[in-house]
Amino acid sequence: MKIAESFRISWRSITGHKLRSSLTAIGVIIGIAAVIVFMVLGGAFEANIVQDFEEDQGDPGMWVNTQNTNQGFEIVPSPIYTETDIQTLESIDGVEFVAPEANLQASQLSFGDTLQTGGFGVQAVDVEQYSEEDMVKGEMYSSGNEAVLTQAMVDTLGGAVGPGDDVTINFEGGVSEEYVVTGIVEEGFGSGPDAAVFVSLVDHYNTTVETPRGTQEQAYSSLIISAEDASAVDSIKQEATEYFETDSDAKELKQEEQDIAVQTVDDAIDQITAVIDQLTVFIGGIAGISLVVGSIGIANIMIVSVTERTREIGVMKAVGARKRDIIQLFLVESTILGAVGAVLGVVLGLGLGFLAVTFIGWPMAYPVNWILIAVAVGLTVGILSGIYPAWRAAKVNPIEALRHE
Amino acid sequence: MQEETATDGIVTLSEVKRTYYLGEPVHALDEVSLSLPEGSFTAVMGPSGSGKSTLMNMVGCLDTPDDGTVTVNGQDVGALSDGKRARLRGSELGFIFQQFNLLPRLTAAENVTLPMVFQNVVGESRRDRAKTLLTRVGLGDRLDHTPPELSGGQRQRVAIARALVNEPSVILADEPTGNLDTETGSEIMELFAELHDDGSTILMVTHERHIAEHADRIIHLVDGQIEEIEHVTENPPVQGSETA
Ligand SMILES: Nc1ncnc2c1ncn2[C@@H]1O[C@H](COP(=O)(O)OP(=O)(O)O)[C@@H](O)[C@H]1O
Ligand SMILES: [Mg+2]
């Protein structure tokens, strides 16, 4: 019997029992839709993070910091990157500048009567690290008692702070200093929280260490390497990594169980997306278990259908159907149910995913691979759940089937 | 009477035995020998449980003998594989049942051509064939109706068209008028008479004498054995006989 023929006959039988067929397909629809929803959410979340990163990225570059071996992302704030290291890195081809990052421990910020305790960061940043585009308003600081704020910081202080105003920072340890605001800097500048104050590095940072050569040098716990353009990033990363593995001061100064990480924005994105991917697959897999239920549903309905259609099977055998024809008919029927369920499940999943993602405010993601996998799984579920019922149908004895009503 | 020659004939049964064991062995067919010559019209009568359906199943290649041989068109049915027997059923036999046994979700035309589907006959010719046959049984205007939309008599006509579709060697009818009122039943018998006139070979089970009299001969079965083969000398006039 031709496959197309069985499609025609099976389709007739499916549409002839609309309610029953729909209920059967619902099991698969829900399973597939659940998987797709999670894949859309995962993909959208990922796209959202990547988008954030790319918006914040600014100048092409990478940062260098120290991590405890085997502890993933945990950054250790130990001052091991010396001035000598900075100078060596600056001599690498394509490097625009190398700037140390230094977080200052501040507890309170005040502007007139407005007090802000915690929830903000203060960083000592080398003037070199700024470019014109980073400034939203005003200009860079040029002396030790000047500071720039992010817009988020301004908002936190009530929105009225601007260039020329005075703010007071209380540092941990009881020291409190007054600064003149010279400008507003773009949000996402630096590596701390959105609400941040930046002050001059040379005037606020003076941690020194003894170098392997026995001299005393200023040292920092992390560095930013800025590239002249994006195409230089990879080669700089390679050279910098090599330097840290061979004759850097940082290599000698770091603890045995610490690693020096040179990370570009892409590396960070890769790391984060890898974690999200794993999570998404895990949750999607759990959702996929509901497909087993869908599969059992199809098998169950097909068995009922075989019993119900025993007489029809007998008739088909009487008019010349062979066992394989009957098997084919029932397999095609269950496969259609699985496939239709999968397609509708994908549509429903994309729809629900779109609603959720739009509601949250993430960009929509279309998990193409997962859509293909879902359809393949739906077909497989259809075929597998049809095997036993089809075998039962093929076994029907036409004499018995034709005898009783 | 059982010594009828079992060699020529489109269907032959020779010393066919079929026994069911339900505690006591029941001889549904007990050394039955029979031949259906080409173009013959044979009726089978007998009390309930005498083996009529078992005989039909044998000829219809749905069952195989425990002993003895059944041949259809020269082929030994008992020696065939399951699949080959199914193919033989589809090509050499046409079934007509008391319950019509049409597929309820297929149209009349699709029901008629269903046996062609299993013989892998494809194409537009199928619909032409259905139209020809349905016209022949008086349903040329009902091609796309489904069985629930047809009356009992019309359904049986569709079943007859289906039985003819693969130009079978033998038409098997098990109580074809059993579910029909007298008038409709005689209309169906009219069709059988026409088929017989056109040269079809027919084997029909019935328990009604006046139905059986449309045949050339009547086989009387009792306890799985042929008790008598009665030759019908004068067929009843089909037209208007029941309505008179
Ligand atoms: N599947 C079966 N199992 C057991 N006995 C059966 C079976 N089919 C038929 N028989 C027995 O075989 C005998 C003949 O049955 P059947 O051919 O159906 O008779 P009829 O059609 O003349 O009424 C009966 O006694 C019946 O009970
Ligand atoms: Mg019977």
Describe this entry's structure for a reader:
The complex is a heterodimer of chains A (405) and B (244). Chain A is α+β, with helices and mostly antiparallel strands and 405 residues long. Helix content of chain A is 53%, strand content 21%. Chain A has twelve helices and 15 strands. Chain A is elongated, with a radius of gyration of 33 Å. Chain B has 244 residues and is of the alpha/beta class. In chain B, the strands form two sheets. A six-stranded mixed β-sheet of chain B has the order 6-7-8-3-9-10, with helices on both faces. A four-stranded antiparallel β-sheet of chain B has the order 2-1-4-5. Chain B is globular and about 50 Å long. In chain B, α4 (125-136) packs across α5 (152-164). Classes of the chains: A alpha+beta (405), B alpha/beta (244). Bound molecules: adenosine-5'-diphosphate and magnesium ion. Adenosine-5'-diphosphate is lined by residues 20, 22, 26, 28, 46, 48-54 of chain B.
Averaged pLDDT of chain A, please? 86
Biggest sheet architecture of chain B: 6 strands, mixed
What is the average of the pLDDT values of chain B?
90
For the record, give the distance between the C-alpha atoms at the N and C termini of chain B, rounded to a whole number.
37 Å
CATH level 3 topology of chain B: Rossmann fold
Oligomeric state: heterodimer
Protein name (chain B): ABC transporter ATP-binding protein
Keywords (chain B): ATP-binding, Nucleotide-binding
Domain MacB-like periplasmic core (chain A): 21-242
Family (chain A): Belongs to the ABC-4 integral membrane protein family.
